[in-house]
Amino acid sequence: MPPPLTPALPAMPLKIAVAQINPTLGDLPANTNKILAAVEEARQFGAHVLVTPELALCGCPPEDLLLRPDFLATCDHALNSLAEKIEVFGDITLIVGHPATRDGACYNAASVLRPGSPPAVYQKMLLSEELNEYRYFSPGNAPLVVTIGGVACGIVIGADIDRETPARYARAAGAELLLVLAASPYHIGKPSERFRNLASRARENDLPAIYVNLVGGQDEFVFDGGSLAVDRSGELAARLPQFQEIQGSEISLAGWGERDANPNIVSRWGSLRSPQPTNSLSSNLCLEEEVWQALTLGIRDYVEKNRFPGALLGFSGGIDSALVLALAVDALGKERVRTVIMPSPYTSQMSLDDARAMTEALGTRHDEIGIEPVMRTFASLLAPHFSGLPADTSEENIQARARGMILMALSNKSGELVLNAGNKSEMAVGYCTLYGDMVGGLAVLTDIPKTMVYRLARYRNRREPGNAPIPENIINRPPSAELKPGQTDQDSLPPYEILDAIIKGYMEENKSATELINDGLSKEDVTKAIRLFHLAEYKRRQAPVGILVTRRGFGKNWRYPITNRWGYP
Length: 569
Fold this sequence. Notes:
With 569 residues, the protein is an alpha/beta fold.
């Protein structure tokens, strides 16, 4: 541990405002106004400084927009506008995240804007592989320490806090406090990782630290907020709620020396506290609630930021579409969600009854369009070409594609977004139909294994024990695509508990088939699942964008070749 610092005491505790905000990518005027509103709120409770998340000015991740000179020029203009307005405020410092260009290179940057001074700029040192930042940004190589309210504040960004060097550089440059601007996407387990990393940097450098995280949905990613502060020993001192936008939450930095009269304040800048007790130590969410909030935020922001009037869902009466319906209603409200039941001759009466009961209980708009006439028409058209050939998945897939065509026609006419209900287990092994049940604009469950689908459904019902939205029949019956008489998923697949264990080990942990078998899984199940896994890659490339909630999901975190002879057991 470095030797203790002995700086001069500030006259008053440093008041730091945290802006856990939800910007819209590319909407620079709206984002600027959001930041200025947070500045004004922070001034009202006497904050010395407002800290925004990483890339808050433009939204995150900007991806290939960063390759456009006109986009970067717009970001520069917005930053200059912010700096001019901060001059008018006169008594507060703003630390804002944004992209910045210098000498032909682009940086993930943070600018310190304060009246009467030129901006001080920090360039992120350690770039994020998760956000593919090496494609766009050059790494910085110098610390930035600025004095605010008598306290030397070291500025770092996002992944800088995951390793020792940037924080150590800031400490060596005289920092007494770390301020971290972050845009850290959510996945299961990520909040604990952030806390561990922040606490480690605090202990290593004998410094308190404040971590300000972005919140909101952006395509596949969901940023969950959960901004936090730790004291110099790495103990949690304050945490804001996950998945909620908070314009300004004050955190005070206590004085140096003996214990303060306030029992919440300890010595040597040791206590970071919020004056809003409900936000100061927001309790951890249970896993199901955390994932539920991630999915509903992802749906809401995708619909609203892309200006869809509402959402449309093909509702089969099965567990996956039932879960998506409950999520959509929680995210958007019942008035903005529409369901369509499209029964075939193989649809059971139980499915129809359960689907009707659930839509009635939730109060959503509900339509029914039978697909038997479409099936007859296609059977007639294809009869000469299928003559003499046995019935197989070709006929089954016509049903799924008829439903997909109906949903997309309704979407085109109404402007509503089609929500896809395929889960991760099905996507992994290709148990889905291209241009059929894979249609849609947003795949809500693409990163949710089937076993987690059931956990989420039961969690949602537990929240309203007297008014559970998902009928127990839907949860308890064997899952089925209902494309032929008596069909169940386990006719073609291993039990989902086994399949999900194989997918997790093979995909998320990069285990080999041999390792999975040595873990106790059957050779037959492992061999079959991995073979299907690789065969389905071409389907996944054509799937709709989906919300990511695990460490490794299909989409941005998955880059396997389609044409590939390696890895088949």
